[in-house]
Design a protein that fits this description.
Layout: E1 11-15, H1 20-31, E2 35-40, H2 43-57, E3 61-65, H3 71-83, E4 89-92, H4 107-138, E5 149-154, H5 158-161, H6 167-187, E6 192-199, H7 205-211, H8 219-224, H9 233-245, E7 255-258, H10 262-266, H11 278-299
Parallel strand pairs: 1-2, 1-4, 2-3, 4-5, 5-6, 6-7
Helix pairs in contact: 1-9, 3-4, 4-6, 7-11
């Protein structure tokens, strides 16, 4: 649906770009002519992804092994990126989430989500944004009609209707929703546009194991979604490409919910888990911990 070189000349940073949604969006950007930078905590995964994508698309993919919960590490990454080509776009994709009864949450469990999603997203946006602003000021300012920089953040539909059993994520993603509206109005004068996307269920390994443990990916959406299905990765890829393209620079400060109208028809995604018993939650916790251990092993 897009011209082959729609994103030619762009260089886009995707946090959490080694796997899942982040990798898929990176693939689309490369397909459309952009160069990419991907970052995450698992260096070997990033390197393997970058090599595969470079071989496939013939475009440059730089990698940074970084924990976005660490503000100084994020700023050092941004400094290096801007010293070696800069950026035209940013996709805040890195996240963490798991289902839990809120009364069972520990402060450590809450912080595990909030530090990645809320703090990490702000650290990256702030580090990139302040460098864009410095560039604009050094060039004498931005005027309408000039190219714009674009930020896209992945949020959740729960920012509109709450998220029972995923309260740390609902709270943290709501903060990104607020950041999107706030910075769109503050930074528009510098030629920076900021939007967010709340995808419905698009099955990935990490998401399925932590949010739908023991279920077939997409099974829940097939039962309750108004379109009787889960989302497809290509749908998110196409929307992300549009937001990065500059095809509608008038669009800024918006949170776009892409879920087949599920949040309008069914409320919070995990409300039905109110019927789970203690054993169900114990089984879910065991499945989530197994996935966490797998991820830790890949981080080395």
């Amino acid at each position: 649906m897009y011209q082959p070189e729609l994103l030619k000349g762009q260089r886009i940073l995707v946090t959490g770009g080694g796997t899942g949604l982040g990798r898929a969006m990176t693939e689309k950007f490369l397909e459309l002519g952009a160069d990419a930078v991907i970052c995450g905590r698992r260096g070997e995964v990033l390197a393997a992804t970058a090599q595969e994508l470079e071989d496939r698309f013939g475009r440059k993919v730089d990698t940074y092994t970084v924990d976005i919960r660490q503000a100084q590490a994020v700023d050092e990454m941004a400094e290096d990126i801007f010293a070696n080509g800069g950026l035209t776009g940013l996709v805040n994709n890195a996240a963490g989430n798991f289902i839990s009864r809120t009364e069972d949450l520990s402060s450590r469990g809450f912080d595990a989500v909030a530090n990645i999603v809320m703090h990490g997203t702000f650290y990256v946006t702030h580090s990139v944004g302040k460098r864009w602003i410095a560039e604009v000021k050094a060039a004498g300012g931005w005027q309408p009609g000039m190219p714009m920089k674009s930020v896209m953040s992945i949020i959740v539909t729960w920012v509109l209707n709450g998220g029972p059993f995923v309260v740390p994520s609902a709270m943290s993603k709501s903060a990104i929703h607020g950041m999107t509206m706030s910075l769109a109005t503050e930074w528009g004068r510098y030629g920076i546009r900021i939007n967010a996307v709340g995808p419905g269920e698009i099955p990935t390994e990490g998401m399925s194991k932590r949010l739908n443990p023991g279920e077939q990916p997409g099974a829940r959406s097939a039962k309750v979604n108004p379109q009787a299905r889960a989302g497809e990765m290509a749908e998110l890829q196409n929307l992300a490409a549009f937001l990065m393209s500059g095809g509608c620079n008038w669009l800024s400060g918006q949170s776009i919910m892409m879920d087949g109208a599920a949040h309008l028809g069914m409320g919070g995604n995990f409300y039905e888990l109110r019927g789970w018993q203690d054993q169900d939650w114990q089984n879910a916790r065991a499945s989530i911990e197994a996935q966490n251990q797998k991820d830790r092993a890949q981080r080395g």
